[in-house]
What does this fold into?
Amino acid sequence: MNKYIAAIDQGTTSTRCMLFDHAGQVVAIDQKEHQQIYPQPGWVEHDPREIWNRTQEVILGAQKSRGFSHHDIAAVGITNQRETTIVWDRNTGEPIYNAIVWQDTRTDTICSELAQVGGQDRFREKVGLPLTTYFSGPKIKWLLENVEGSYLRAENCDLLFGNIDTWLIWNLTGGVNGGLHITDVTNASRTMLMNLDTLDWDDEILAAMAIPKAMLPEIRSSSQIYGPITNSFLEGIPIAGDLGDQQAAMFGQNCFDIGEAKNTYGTGCFMLLNTGTTPIPSENGLLTTVCFKIGDQPGVYALEGSIAVAGSLVQWLRDNLNMIKSAPEVEDLAKTVDDNGGIYFVPAFSGLFAPYWRTDARGAVVGMTSFINNGHLARATLEATAYQTRDVLEAMNKDSGVKLTALKVDGGMVFNELLMQFQADILNVPVIRPKVAETTALGAAYAAGLATGYWQNISELRANWGQDRIWLPDMEHERRDLLYRGWKKAVTRTFDWV
It folds into this structure.
């Protein structure tokens, strides 16, 4: 048997290739950042060609780091930043425009126009999503309306759409020379174009958004053999797993049963709760989404709370304010003070996501006095992620009727001890970090390994999971309520800004 599974983890700020052994342990990794492009306030773009180049570089880098041969690799899984939208020419492989990133707000007018019939929840019954700038469908519509000649080219079957997973799979499997134009159910569920019941593109919504069906990829399961790689060092190795990053983290955290939940702390912050094989509509501002689909088995659904700004707020302190030189320094700076000094930082840079869905909101620091210093701002920055997570958890409890007893966490911010303790305190539940915190890449590897027989069943995956650290709540009830009431008040101050 081949020794390892490779995972390509294409995220919002960087691309990684990681190799995992049968115990689910990381044996090699390479990572490279890519440029963040901000043409206008609220606009966020990536260069798709740069992302493809970085992908090839990290595949080779991971191999060189330990001297692996491609004969050591059994399969490849892919996980990706969701909703980020690329349209390219099937004949040349050239994108017609930069990738429009999930954080981008330029489609606000399009969403408002679509909401004139049926309101913000016009399509929610079918797709589980509100009409907001977050999702891919309105981004495709913007590209077709703003790139000259693109709509006619799309109707003539000359243009292809894909989220990042589709773009990478197409290039890895041949590109213009017969590349596979596919996606999986989890990524398709983030476009606002896929019907949750049929797990196929919805003709009525496509017509409403004037998006030609011919440009959309074929929807597949999250764990199945799609085809062999033809471009890159991994030539001949099958791609056999494809999951949006948050669903991949669910897979990596072994949240396979109803009621199991995880929270990923990355650029944004995303909590998912497994609700089983029937989609549950949210009445409290959450998203209904596909959790995963293994081979021919029924699709599994989740409720999701999506937070736009989490780790990226720390990066903002580093890059825009130059308060710190590296992201981990924020914890030391925050520890220079005992509390937040009475301030709250609501990072509504691109509006507010779950559970508010307010595109009119903008970021604010409230409660400022002359007492406040950079330590208080650093602490408020970390606390913002914990407060937003509680907002989501409150909504999740109401929708599901299940009270969470512990929260599994993963992502880069889970090594911030101060944040994790405050998260446990403000939620009043234990917070658990697994031994392998890179659960997004691990989930993609698990999906590919299941499809190829590297792992025989889910029980083998569960055996790999282990607890690394647990934080128990240690805050008085009155203080917890006082702090959270202050947060809720601060959030209202960001509304109706634009």
User: Anything to note?
Assistant: The chain has a mean pLDDT of 92.
